[in-house]
Amino acid sequence: MTKSYLPQVEEHRTAAYEIDPVFLNRWSPRSYKEDQIADEVLFSLFEAARWAPSGSNEQPWRFMIARTPEDKQRFYSFIAEGNRIWCEKAPVLALILSKTINSRGDHLRSHAFDAGAAWGYLALEATKKGLVTHAMGGFDPEKAREVLSVPADYELHAVIAIGYQGEKEALPEALQEREKPSSRRELSETVFEGVFEAK
């Protein structure tokens, strides 16, 4: 396989086994250009998410997006200040949520697991399209529920910034140091055979 890693990725990430470069090229920058995303590009991300695996094909994930100034202001009202510092330049914000009740009216134990798979598909498609994404847990879910009129049987998971990567220097100085791909723990620390090993 011909490797095609982004320059900043080669400096900070190395895979122990051969994998497609898209997995290492996907990371979570904070610097965004304000350039708008064409509909055919943006909605291809959600099309990718649509095809994520799903327990009993329940497809519990939902996305609420904000692109207009008015919709983005609604999102800003529940996003933590530390994230607003950088995410306000992103042309698109998306809230990922999942339905906690299945089609038979029972609790859907896999709703968050399935929503996570959908987010992963979206993030990888974004990387393939030359976009960057950054999922944020730093938001007030109850305020978001109220502001966006989200029913009680949905759980709110994260707000995702979507856009084209900006220059590191556009960030506040404290964030510039963090504007690089993170590494990962070794496989031996996350994959166990036989019995669990706390590491």
Summarize the topology.
Blueprint: H1 7-12, H2 22-25, H3 39-50, E1 61-66, H4 69-76, H5 81-87, E2 92-99, H6 111-128, E3 132-136, H7 141-148, E4 154-163, H8 173-176
Antiparallel strand pairs: 1-2, 2-4, 3-4
Strand order, sheet with most strands: 1-2-4-3
- List the helices and strands in order: HHHEHHEHEHEH
Q: Whole-Å distance between the termini?
A: 33 Å
The helix content is 25-40%
Beta-strand residue fraction:
5-15%
CATH topology of the domain at 32-167: NADH Oxidase
Which descriptor suits the 3D outline?
globular
What is the overall number of helices? 8
What radius of gyration results from the CA coordinates? 18 Å
| Largest β-sheet summary | 4 strands, antiparallel
Structural class: alpha+beta
Give the overall average pLDDT.
96
**What is the name of the CATH architecture of the domain at 32-167?**
3-Layer(aba) Sandwich
- Poorly predicted regions are none
**Total strands:** 4
